[in-house]
Amino acid sequence: MSTTPAPAPLLIACALGIEHLALRAGERGGADGPVTVLRTGMGPRAAERSVTRVLADPALAGAAVLATGFCAGLAPGMHPGDLVVAEEARDPRGSVPCVGTELLVKELVRTLPGRTVHTGPVTGSDHVVRGHERSDLFATGAIAVDMESAATLLSAVRAGERPVAAVRVVVDAPEHELVRIGTVRGGISAFRVLRSVLPAFFEWHRSLLLPRR
Fold first, then answer.
1. Residue pair 144/170 in contact by the 8 Å Cβ criterion
2. Distance of alpha carbon 35 from alpha carbon 37, whole angstroms
3. Half-sphere exposure of 155 (CA within 13 A, CB side)
4. Can you give the pLDDT at residue 138?
């Protein structure tokens, strides 16, 4: 008698308490398989430690990993509340190609009509990026920067072969620069967007479970 294999789990990783709060506020079921929302703490080292530790749990063997939260937009014309779907996440240690970006864009547009969705490379930093450093990173081809996506996805693929992706919400853009990280608490628009993204994440995860034709 054959048994149906258990659905692969989904690990959604974010850094900040306010990001975790937004994701938990939006969690209303609809996932195929178990979902873990992990708050890693801020910065690449914290992300690497947390993701490596959590993926050592046999219950998360083969889990798909999606990095999310807020980011700084690098391209002119970006606005707080815009969405960024990474085609790859990179930092000085390497780069990771993301899986299913076209589906994520489609589902985000459907879930959040009227929101602009950007696609391109997302780069990592160990500090909040401002001024000329922002334009320098944009010149490398990256469209957004954050502190955890690259570290999260690099750690995830080092722990074992698995699909990975990164979706970020812009809170800081060239014409809308943050004064300090605490200003994120006033980013009501970005918070509401992050609170609404989970259905798109679940559809992405569901597509990974479908048999290949």
1. yes
2. 7
3. 24
4. 84
Question: Where are the extended beta strands (E) located within 74-174?
Answer: 83-91, 94-97, 117-124, 144-146, 164-172
- Tens digit of pLDDT for each residue in 28-61? 666 667 889 999 999 999 999 999 999 999 999 8
Given a contact cutoff of 8 angstroms between Cβ atoms, the answer to whether 200 and 107 are in contact is: yes
Q: Which has the closest alpha carbon to 204: 157, 161, 167, 155? A: 167
Nearest to 186 by CA among 23, 18, 43: 18
Q: Which residues pair with 139 in a beta bridge?
A: none
Residue 86 and residue 47: Cα distance in Å, rounded?
17
The C-alpha atoms of residue 83 and residue 75 are separated, in whole angstroms, by 12
Q: What are phi and psi of 123, to 5 degrees?
A: -110, 155
Determine contact, residues 65/51, Cβ cutoff 8 Å. Answer: yes
Query: Does 85 have pLDDT greater than 70?
Result: yes
d(CA 7, CA 205): 10
* pLDDT confidence of residue 103: 95
HSE (CB half, 13 Å, CA atoms) of 10? 27
Q: What is the pTM of this model?
A: 0.89
Q: How far apart are CA 147 and CA 181, in angstroms?
A: 12
